[in-house]
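Person: I have long wanted to understand how a fold can be written as tokens. Underneath my words sits a plain record pairing an amino acid chain with its backbone structure tokens. Those tokens are not coordinates but codes from a learned vocabulary of shapes. I should like you to check that the lines agree and flag anything odd. The protein I mean follows directly.
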Amino acid sequence: MIRFTVIWAKDITEQLTILWLQAKDRRKVTQDSFLIDLELSTDAHIKGIDLHEGLRKIVQHPLAVTYTVNLPDRIVRVVGLGILK
């Protein structure tokens, strides 16, 4: 098991805040973002799906995030946020 520090890019954090403010169920948005963070904090390099060139995607319905993994530094950077319908 490899532990990682998860960093959400500032613009992604801002998008998540807007999503939270507009959500009918704010608790669900909070819970889903927490679960993504928790999931990526261990073995992120083998979780989700590989999109291309080091970019990976993980889903905690309805949230989907794209992220990169720096294995030597053990850092995960969340760089994209999407909402699944």
